[in-house]
Design goal:
Layout (H helix, E strand, L loop, with lengths): L4 H10 L15 E5 L9 E7 L2 E12 L10 E7 L15 H17 L8 E3 L3 E13 L4 H13 L3 E7 L6 E10 L7 E8 L3 E4 L3 H6 L2 E7 L5 E5 L8 H29 L3
Parallel strand pairs: 4-6
Antiparallel strand pairs: 1-2, 2-3, 3-6, 5-6, 7-8, 9-10, 9-11, 11-12
Helix pairs in contact: 2-3
Length: about 270
């Protein structure tokens, strides 16, 4: 495994399994915690574990004036952090390439899937809107960061309750009613499913960090609950045939159902009766 890691892996792949005992199309154990058990100071939070990969997401809601050119829209600001504590490969300091690429990927998923419509975040046209700061921090990195990040973001957003805000017509000032809170309007539920490509032809799902390093490429498919394709993220590497890509999309749609079921189950368990 140390001297010839790729050959070591190939021996397992020939038998249609992986060194950790999983089949090629098998995901690692997935768990999610939503709400106060994650971050008490956030307006919404969730902790997701995908095997050893652990990601926490906290949402902070603040009030701001909308931009002049989009007076009826609020803002969503995602940020992915890969601190040095989550793996040896990351260094302290400003965000590296991988963290920046992950933040951009999350921003694209929010935009393409229309999970939150920015118009829904507007309180008073041209005067006041919500800003959602979505901080996604990796606590333990063992591959497949994108799947865990999208899952944690969705679960945390479903946990957000925004207070009622009105503008006093006499004073022109905003008034916040903390006693009356409403859940965030989430219009779509995107879920990411990542694959590693081995030797240009073989696809394995939910790769570990070691598998990502040995792979000849990776691809991430994002779908919503209607089976609609929201995003295909393929940063270089081996090309995929149309048939292989279709296979990935089909598997991603199945995975979506599993993740949505898991989120619904957890939310049901924390909702007051």
């Amino acid at each position: 495994r140390t001297v010839e890691p790729l050959e070591y892996y190939r021996r397992f792949l020939k038998e249609n399994c992986r060194p950790d005992g999983r089949e090629l199309g098998e995901f690692r154990t997935t768990t999610v915690n939503i709400g106060k058990c994650s971050i008490t100071t956030a307006d919404g939070s969730a902790l997701v574990k995908l095997g050893n990969t652990t990601v926490i997401c906290g949402i902070k809601a603040e009030l701001a004036a909308p931009a002049v050119d989009s007076a009826n829209k609020g803002y969503i600001v995602p940020n992915v952090e890969l601190p040095s504590l989550c793996a040896e490969r990351f260094r302290s300091g400003p965000p590296g390439e991988e963290a920046q690429a992950a933040s951009q990927f999350i921003a694209d998923v929010i935009e393409n899937s229309q999970m939150i419509v920015k118009e829904d975040l507007c309180i008073a046209n041209g005067k006041l809107a919500w800003v959602l700061y979505c901080d996604i921090i990796c606590l333990d990195y063992d591959g497949n960061l994108l799947d865990a990040s999208v899952f944690a973001l969705l679960a945390a957003l479903k946990n957000v309750q925004l207070p009622l805000v009105t503008i006093n017509e006499e004073t022109g000032l905003s008034e916040v009613n903390l006693k009356q809170k409403n859940p965030l309007i989430i219009r779509k539920h995107p879920v990411a499913t990542s694959f590693a490509i081995f030797d240009d032809t073989l696809l394995i799902v939910d790769p570990t960090a070691e598998e990502e390093d040995l792979a000849t490429g990776t691809v991430t498919i994002v779908t919503d609950e209607e089976g609609r394709l929201c995003s295909v993220h393929k940063p270089g590497g081996s090309p995929l045939t149309g048939a292989k890509l279709q296979d990935c999309i089909t598997r991603a749609i199945t995975r979506h159902k599993e993740v949505k079921k898991l989120i619904d189950k957890v939310i049901k368990s924390i909702t007051p009766k």
